[in-house]
Design goal:
Blueprint (H helix, E strand, L loop, with lengths): L10 E4 L7 H7 L4 E5 L2 H5 L2 H11 L3 E5 L8 H14 L3 E6 L1 H16 L8 E2 L9 E5 L11 E5 L6 E5 L7 E4 L9 H18 L7 H23 L4 H21 L3 H13 L3 H16 L3 H11 L13 H15 L16 H9 L13 H11 L1
Parallel strand pairs: 1-9, 2-3, 2-4, 4-6, 5-8, 6-9
Antiparallel strand pairs: 7-8
Length: 384
């Protein structure tokens, strides 16, 4: 049994319509001035206005920061920090997808502790207590609401910095599946695939524990059922609920056991070619599973995950890693996502440089089989 030291600081409030409790929950945290961090899509969907009304009905003063971009950069965080310093909030709300929630955490690091975003790259680098935060995910993907990490790209180098500290964990996460009904179909697909990769990777990482594996397995059981249903019928609230809880549980698994080679391979693709993260990591996941399946213990883990998929018995001649990889590829195709790097117009002569960048990613170190640039290049070539 692997030793662990795990704490979950976040209170989770789940249910349709729970966004309406935001004002009440903010008051319970002693708030009077609230900075709401979101993005233009959330505003267009009407979720920001509902959040603002709930806060102001509770007598709280609010200010909006909507300049959040996909894969937020240190520049986004710095602009948000300037807004926060002028407003002086005592609570931050991250409303939106992982980008909004991560940007809100980044702003909290700078507002509460000073300095630059790169000062917090790593673990446990906050210098003092941070403002309380409420996370309200409007997508089912990153699980950022359950994590103490903010993933922020350096605006100059484009390297993704994982900045984590227990004090950055959200005090409350409101999980309202109705908010995910407004997602465009492509966002549903990309974020859902991301959540599935989180469940798959966390289940087999080197630092995984009995606790993290319980989170991963329950996430997998919900996500593997809910994904195809929600892609087929985006109005199915039950499937939306399965995806949202599954994504949150997978986020809790990340907090406890980190990620692996699929994310290490995906991040340079996103940085260099502006490929959405869900597409990049989803494309790489089947090839990483086949690679990791060389390890007998991982093959056994994949067998347990296979038992949760109700698509027929596994051929005795087929490995669990291959069966799981084939199932995952079918989900990509069902969601109209690409399954080969050449389909994304990534030049073959760039694969060697990408493999060098992938080897520098933090998550590569947690993969169950050690990976060097040579192994990562092999996986890229198989994915091409």
């Amino acid at each position: 049994m692997q030793n662990f030291d795990f704490s979950q600081r976040t209170r989770f409030v789940f249910g349709a319509g729970k966004l309406n409790l935001l004002g009440q929950l903010a008051k319970e945290l002693g708030a009077s001035r609230v900075l709401i961090v979101s993005d233009p899509g959330v505003v267009r969907a009407g979720h920001f206005e509902r959040a603002r009304q709930s806060l102001e009905a509770a007598g709280l003063v609010t200010l909006a920061f909507h300049d959040v971009h996909e894969n937020p950069s240190s520049d986004d965080v710095e602009v948000g920090n300037k807004v926060a310093r002028e407003f002086q909030p005592d609570l931050i709300v991250g409303l939106g997808g992982g980008s909004s929630m991560d940007c809100a955490k980044g702003i909290n690091f700078l507002f509460s502790c000073g300095g630059e975003m790169k000062d917090y790259w790593g673990v446990g680098k906050a210098t003092r207590e941070m403002l309380p935060m409420i996370a309200i995910p409007t997508t089912s993907g990153t699980g950022s609401e359950a994590q103490s990490f903010a993933l922020i790209s350096d605006a100059k180098t484009h390297v993704k910095m994982a900045c984590g500290d227990r004090r950055a964990a959200c005090r409350i996460a409101i999980l309202d599946p109705e908010l995910t009904l407004t997602q465009p179909s492509r966002v549903t697909a990309l974020t859902g695939i991301d959540a599935l990769t989180h469940a798959l990777e966390t289940y087999v990482t080197k630092p995984r524990t009995a606790l993290s594996m319980a989170f991963s397995m329950q996430a997998w059981q919900l996500l593997s059922v809910g994904f195809s249903r929600v892609v087929t019928d985006p109005t199915d609230l039950e499937s939306r609920s399965q995806m949202q809880i599954g994504a949150t549980l997978a986020g809790m698994a990340i907090e406890a056991s980190m990620l692996g080679a699929a994310h290490a391979l995906a991040n340079p693709i996103t940085a260099a070619f502006k490929i959405p993260h869900g597409q990049a990591v989803g494309l790489m996941m089947p090839h990483v599973m086949r690679f990791n399946g060389q390890l007998t213990s991982v093959e056994s883990d994949y067998a347990r995950l296979n038992n949760s998929i109700r698509d027929g018995a596994i051929d005795a001649r087929e490995s669990s890693s291959n069966h799981l990889a084939d199932w995952f590829t079918k989900q990509l195709l069902h969601a109209c996502l690409k399954t080969r790097l050449r389909e994304l117009e990534i030049p073959h002569n760039q694969l060697e440089q990408l493999s060098l960048e992938a080897s520098k990613q933090w998550t590569a170190s947690f993969n169950p089989i050690a990976v060097t640039p040579a192994e990562l290049l092999q996986i890229y070539r198989q994915a091409f």
